[in-house]
Design a protein that fits this description.
Elements lengths: L2 H48 L17 H6 L3 H34 L5 H13 L2 H14 L6 H25 L3 H9 L4 H30 L2 H6 L6 H9 L6 H28 L3 H13 L2
Helix pairs in contact: 1-11, 3-6, 3-8, 4-6, 6-8, 7-8, 7-12, 8-11, 8-12
Length: 296
């Protein structure tokens, strides 16, 4: 056998070994990704499965499948009140966070003033403050102002961490946006409000929607701050926490399954709308935006 033949066999062996290593590497990566997603989604999947178990004991094996807990949920006035109250709080907080968060992001990005770094640090404070500290601090503040715990205090408490979240997500998008579009709009005679509506807002809407979805989720899930500010009527997490002291039925699993499924559906719809917009040619979209501003 010639040396050229030996060299060719060695090269083929190396290439085969390299392909095996790459395949093994991709398999290990796939297993790791699967384990991560299993860890993230196993609890809600288990919750959804147990919501169809006819037994009130949350253990295997199942007795038989049933929709009875969903029927009980829709006939439980206290649970319904807690769910609708949580939704009312979350939507109000998201609206406040979107308005003020966008305003703060524009202020930080477009206005030069002294102490901007300090302002951003103070704005980020509620995001890193423990929920118990934030809840007690707000409770003391409202008590000193003679404000009774209730819907207003919960909304303010949730807005203290949802608004900074929206601010920093939108701010990141503003810092990567093309400033020439707004300059062209202003040079064409459009005022600040018209420029914001037709140019700036369409450019940041993806980040704004993502921030609102995340803020909605955090508000619906928040229990520590809400516990100190709720008063008589509590949100769904506070109500469920109260049930835990006396034991609860799979009716709670049914409620969490409906909320989780609704949130997932909302995210899928929002993602589909955003992807449908982003697949359009970007240059054509930019020209339409500027043309809309330039129209009298």
């Amino acid at each position: 056998m010639s040396s050229a033949t030996v060299t060719s066999h060695e090269r083929q062996n190396r290439e085969t070994f390299a392909r095996v290593l790459r395949t093994l590497g991709w398999i290990l990566v796939g297993i790791a990704v699967f384990c991560v997603y299993l860890f993230l989604y196993a609890p809600p999947i288990v919750t959804a499965v147990f919501s169809f178990n006819s037994s009130s004991v949350q253990t295997l094996p199942f007795a038989h499948a049933t929709f009875g807990w969903y029927h009980a949920l829709f006939n439980d006035p206290q649970m319904q009140t807690a769910i609708f109250y949580s939704l009312k709080v979350a939507f109000t907080v998201v609206f406040i966070g979107a308005v003020f968060g966008t305003g703060f992001a524009l202020l930080i990005d477009r206005v030069a003033f002294r102490g901007k770094s300090v302002f951003q640090a103070l704005l980020a404070g509620p995001l890193v403050t423990p929920g118990m500290v934030l809840g007690i601090s707000l409770l003391v503040l409202f008590h000193s102002l003679a404000v009774s715990p209730g819907f207003l205090t919960i909304v303010v408490g949730h807005a203290t961490f949802v608004t900074p979240l929206v601010t920093f997500i939108v701010l990141q998008r503003l810092r990567t946006a093309d400033p020439t579009l707004e300059q062209a709009s202003m040079d064409s005679g459009a005022g600040p409000l018209r420029t914001f509506w037709h140019v700036t807002l369409p450019g940041i809407r993806v980040a704004l929607i993502a921030a609102c979805l995340l803020g909605f989720t955090l508000s619906m899930d928040e229990i520590t701050v809400t516990f100190f500010l709720a008063g008589i009527q509590g949100t769904l997490p506070v109500y469920v926490w109260g049930l835990l002291r006396f034991g609860f039925t799979p009716e709670v699993n049914a409620a969490f399954t409906i909320i989780g499924g609704g949130s997932l559906l909302l995210i899928i719809v929002a993602t589909a709308l955003l992807v449908g917009w982003n697949v359009r040619p970007s240059q054509r979209r930019e020209r339409r935006r500027v043309a809309a501003v330039m129209q009298p």
